[in-house]
Amino acid sequence: MRDVAREAGVSVGTVSNVLNKPDEVSADSIARVQSAIDKLGYIRNDAARRLRAGVSSTVGFIVLDGRNPFINEVVRGAEDEASRHGIAILVGNTDEDPAREEMYLDLFAEQQVRGVLISPYGDITRRLQRLREREVPVVLVDRMNPEGRFSAVATDSVSGGRMAAEHLLAQGRRRLAFVGGPFDMRQARDRLDGARWAVENSDAGATLEVVTTTALSVEEGIAAGRRIMDRQPAQRPDAVFAGNDLVALGLLQSLSTGGSLLVPQQIALIGFDDISFAAAAAVPISSMRQPARAIGQTALRILLEEAADATLIPRQTVFRPELVARASSG
Amino acid sequence: MRDVAREAGVSVGTVSNVLNKPDEVSADSIARVQSAIDKLGYIRNDAARRLRAGVSSTVGFIVLDGRNPFINEVVRGAEDEASRHGIAILVGNTDEDPAREEMYLDLFAEQQVRGVLISPYGDITRRLQRLREREVPVVLVDRMNPEGRFSAVATDSVSGGRMAAEHLLAQGRRRLAFVGGPFDMRQARDRLDGARWAVENSDAGATLEVVTTTALSVEEGIAAGRRIMDRQPAQRPDAVFAGNDLVALGLLQSLSTGGSLLVPQQIALIGFDDISFAAAAAVPISSMRQPARAIGQTALRILLEEAADATLIPRQTVFRPELVARASSG
DNA sequence: CTGTTAGCGCTTTCAT
DNA sequence: ATGAAAGCGCTAACAG
After folding, report:
1. Do residue A191 and residue A271 come from a single domain?
2. Per-residue model confidence (pLDDT) at position B217
3. To the nearest 5 percent, what fractions of chain A are helix, strand and coil?
4. Do A132 and A61 reside in the same domain of the chain?
5. I need a labelling partner for B253 at 20 to 30 A (CA). Which of A193, A216, B135, B304 fits?
6. Taking CB atoms and an 8 Å cutoff, what residues of chain B touch A75?
7. Footprint of strand C on the protein (CB under 7 A)
8. How many CB pairs below 8 Å do chains A and B form together?
C-alpha cells in the first residue's frame, strides 16, 4: 500500500480511502491510485484489514452432509449471493458428528468470520450462544429455531410431511411407512410428525409405521428397503415416505424382486428435497421440492444484514415445499 | 492474549510460545496458560497471526461445477485432509465462467490463502503464474499440466477414454458416439482422444462420431439424447460414451421411445466418474471410476508440502481409472 | 479533500 | 525458560 501511495504520489490514507470510501476522495486521486494499483499488481492484505477494521470477508457454512445434492444447492445459493458482496465461503462438513461441528465452529471463530450459516445436527444452542456473545451472527439453515433466538431459514418440514402423506393417501394407499431418522435430527422428526398428523386426521383408516435409519443416506435407504423386503408381502407397507431423496433412491434400489420393481404398483414411494437425480431414477421419484437456491441466498442475505446491524431481531423465514408427483407414487 | 497472560501470570510471548512452540516452554507454564485459556474462553485471532507470521490457515478450492457429485467428493477429500491440519477450505464455483474464476483468484489472493487448489477451465497458466510469483502454491486438480509448471493431481482421462471405448467394442458395438464437450475443456478432449485411439487401433472396423455438448451436465445430456432420437433408428449409434455421468444420466432419460428404453439393447451406454447416482439410475450406468476422495486428499497434501517448502519441484500425480461395468453397457 | 499517525493482536528476535 | 518490545499492513481519527 505504501508502494501504491508513492507511485500515485499520495499518502497511504488516501489509498485506503480510495479503496473503502471512494466518495470522500477526488476523482483525480482515484484515477491515479487505480492506475498505480494496476501497474504494481497490488492486492490488499485482508488479514491486516481485518485486524484493524474488524470486518472479515468470509462467512462459514457448516453443513451436515456435503454429499447431499440438496445441501450443495443451498450452499451454492449462498455462494452466489456472497460473491456479489466480495465474500467467500468457508465450508465445513460435519457428517452429523458433533465433534466435527465443534471443530469447525472453533476454526471459524479463529478466522473471525463475518458470520456463520449452519444446518445443525443436535442441540447446539449453547455453543451458538457463545458465538453470538462474540458478536458473530448466526443463521440456522434448513431448520427452524422455535425459541427464536437465532434467525433461521428453512422449509416447513411438518407441512411437507403432511402433504406427502396426504398425497399417498389420495392415491388410495392405506398402510404407510415413514423411512428415516435419526430422530434427534430435527428435519426427520418434523417430516414424520407431519405425516403422522395427516394419517391421524384422515378418516380412511390408514396406518403409519416407522422404519428408522441412522442417517438420511442412500446406503441407509438400501438397508431399510432390504428389511422391508425380508417381510412377507402382506406385511409390507403399500406406500413409503422417505425422509429425503437419498433414502428414496436407496429404497428404490432394494425394493425389487428378481429384477422387477415393486414401485409404484405394490409400493408407492415419495421422497423429500427433489434433488435433480430424483427425476432420473429407475422409476422417477415423486418428491417434496424445497427451493434450495433461494434458501441459501436468503440465509446469506439475512446473515449480512445482521452482521451490519447487531440490534436486528432474529426472524424465521419459512418456505413452503411443493409436491412434485412422478411415476413412483403411481 | 494479554488477558490470558495476565491470568496465567506470564508474558504474552510465553502464551504465544505455548500455542506455537510448546517444547520451548516449561510444563508448568503450559499448564497454567492452558487453564487460563479455558477459563477465559480465549480464541486466537487468526488475522493477527496471519499478519505477523504470514501463514494462513485457509486454502482456496476453485471448482468448475459444484453440482457434480464427483467434484464434491474431491472437495470432501481435500476437506478431510485439511481439517486434520486445522485448515479450512474456501470454495468457489466458477460454472465454467472465466470471469468468476478471476474473481475467486483475486478474492483468495486477498485472503492470503496458504494455497489454491483449482480445477481450471480454460488456459489460465498466466494468471496462475502471477499467483505463484506471490509465493502462493497452486495445485491443479482433475487436470494435468503438460508443461509441468504446476503440480497436478488427476485421473488419466486418455486411458479412461480408451478403456471405455474398448469396453464398448468388446461388447460387439461398432457405431460408437462420444457425447461431451465443450472441447476447450481439457477433460472432455482427453476422453475423446482416448476413445478415438481405441477405435482407430481396433481392427473391428468401428466408427466414432462426436456429439458435442456445451457442458457436461444432465440438461445437455438430455438435449443430446433428443438429437440422437430424432434420427432414423438405423442412423443412431449402437453405443454411447458420455463425457461424464451427468451426461450419461441425461442421455438415459431421453433415450427411450414410448416408455421403453433403448439402453442397453439398442444402445450401450457408459459414463465417467462413477458418481454414486450412476448405480441408482433407471438402468444402472457403467462408468469409469475415479478415486475422487483420494484425488482431493492428495492434492491438498501436495499443496501443504509446497507451502512449507517453496523449492519443491512440481509433480504430476496420475490415478488410473477403473472400469465399472453395469447393465447399461450390456 | 489529503496527510499523519496510533494501534488492531499476534509472533519473533534479543536480552536477561 | 521467560519477558520486553518491534512491527506485520491496514483503517480511522484527527489535523491541516
Report:
1. yes
2. 92
3. 45, 20, 35
4. yes
5. A216
6. 66, 91
7. A 9-14, 17, 24-26, 28-29, 48, 51-52; B 1-2, 12-13, 15-17, 19-20, 44-45, 48-49, 51-53
8. 146
Cβ-defined contact of A91 to B89 (cutoff 8 Å)? yes
B241 is written with which cell numbers?
460414451
Find the Å distance, CA of residue B50 to C1' of nucleotide C6. Answer: 21
CB atoms within 10 A of CB B306: 23
* B235 shares a domain with B134: no
A13 CA → D16 C1’, Å: 14
> In terms of domains, do B257 and B161 share one?
yes
Q: Is the pTM of this model over 0.85?
A: yes
Segment (H or E) for A128 = helix A125-133
Q: Are residues A109 and A198 in the same domain?
A: no
What is the tally of structural domains in chain B? 3
Between the CA of A309 and the C1' of D13, what is the distance in angstroms?
22
Amino acid B177: pLDDT: 98
CB A22 under 7 Å to nucleic chain D: no
Mark whether B91 and B138 lie in a shared domain: yes
B25 touches strand D (CB under 7 A): yes
CATH of the domain at B243: 3.40.50.2300
What pLDDT does A230 receive? 93
**What range defines the domain where residue B186 resides?**
157-291+324-329
Check: CB of residue A290 under 8 Å from CB of residue A70: yes
Identity of the residue in A47, A66, A86 whose CB atom sits nearest the CB atom of B76: A66
Is the domain of B17 the same as that of B88? no
What confidence category does residue B229 fall into, taking pLDDT thresholds of 50, 70 and 90?
A: very high
Q: List chain D nucleotides near protein: any atom < 7 Å from a Cβ.
A: 1-5, 7-13
